């Protein structure tokens, strides 16, 4: 059982890639910096390859109704090459690359898929489970599988952006033994606050580390209302006497600018927090009570006398 793991969380700036080679160079630069910082894992954001839309000459004139067609014309054909590129970088740099979700069409379904590319060449895939309204507008569908995984002997889980706002998902992963939750994201200003508050809530509820990697900057597509990502990479921890961090922010990067935040996650301290802190969320749960309350269809109405 590992006592600590060092991870690097990217605040990745949107770039208008002219070709796949430019995307590969950008990703490799982040991975090289993470490896040089001593990290075992690099977390990349949701839709990390979105700037590849600019490989199509129609990108600059695409309006809202045309976004879905542009995604299908550009991102689906590049999907496999992007996966191969990230897997090769992980092997070359000797670290895992996680998050880095990629949109693609599969069997007629639009899917937003996140990944874990391990340095041994193995690849894990986690589809986004709850597409947002803009995603559904281009016929993106949610996945139906969720699984924890190991990176270097550390149990982790991956939830893509909006998924972190559904507490049930993190609970499933915690029941499967995770200590670290990875969350790649792409949000606007209000969405940034939703993801931030949800991440802190999940850290408190489940006594886990929650790591966020956002995509930031202006995509320039669609022309009427361009995608504009906001936010900053950060790591949240439980709020208790063992960590002694009043707001639960273990580390946070500057907002809205590309950077790499490297954080040492003290797993031994996390376990101590679960066992001996002033607040023991996991140990104090009452699952039988919750099941009974959920199944009680004849509860006494509020304000009435039994």
UniProtKB/TrEMBL annotation:
One Pfam family recorded for the sequence: CN_hydrolase
Location of the CN hydrolase domain: 5-267
Family the UniProt entry places it in: Belongs to the carbon-nitrogen hydrolase superfamily. NIT1/NIT2 family.
Protein name: Amidohydrolase
Species this chain originates from: Labrys wisconsinensis
Lineage of the organism: Bacteria, Pseudomonadati, Pseudomonadota, Alphaproteobacteria, Hyphomicrobiales
């Amino acid at each position: 059982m590992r006592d600590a793991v060092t991870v690097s969380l990217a605040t990745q700036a949107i770039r208008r890639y002219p070709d796949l080679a430019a995307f590969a160079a950008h990703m490799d630069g982040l991975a090289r910096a993470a490896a040089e910082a001593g990290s075992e894992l690099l977390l990349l954001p949701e839709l990390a390859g979105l700037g590849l839309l600019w490989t199509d000459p129609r990108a600059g004139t695409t309006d809202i109704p045309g976004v879905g067609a542009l995604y299908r014309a550009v991102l689906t054909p590049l999907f496999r090459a992007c996966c191969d590129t990230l897997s090769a970088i992980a092997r070359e740099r000797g670290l895992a690359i996680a998050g880095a979700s990629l949109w693609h069409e599969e069997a007629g379904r639009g899917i937003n898929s996140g990944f874990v590319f391990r340095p041994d060449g193995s690849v894990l895939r986690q589809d986004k489970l709850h597409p947002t309204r803009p995603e559904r507008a281009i016929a993106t569908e949610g996945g139906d599988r969720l699984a924890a995984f190991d990176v270097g002997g550390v149990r982790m889980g991956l939830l893509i952006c909006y998924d972190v706002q559904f507490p049930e998902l993190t609970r499933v992963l915690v029941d499967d033994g995770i200590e670290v939750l990875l969350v790649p994201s792409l949000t606007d200003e209000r969405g940034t606050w939703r993801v931030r508050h949800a991440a802190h809530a999940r850290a408190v509820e489940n006594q886990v580390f929650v790591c966020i990697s956002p995509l930031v900057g202006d995509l320039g597509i669609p022309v009427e209302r361009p995608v504009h990502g906001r936010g900053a990479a950060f790591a949240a921890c439980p709020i208790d006497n063992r960590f002694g961090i009043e707001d639960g922010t273990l580390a946070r990067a500057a907002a809205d600018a590309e950077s790499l935040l490297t954080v040492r996650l003290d797993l031994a301290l996390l376990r101590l927090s679960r066992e001996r802190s002033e607040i023991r969320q996991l140990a104090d749960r009452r699952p039988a009570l919750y099941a009974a309350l959920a199944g009680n269809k004849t509860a006494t109405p509020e304000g009435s006398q039994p």
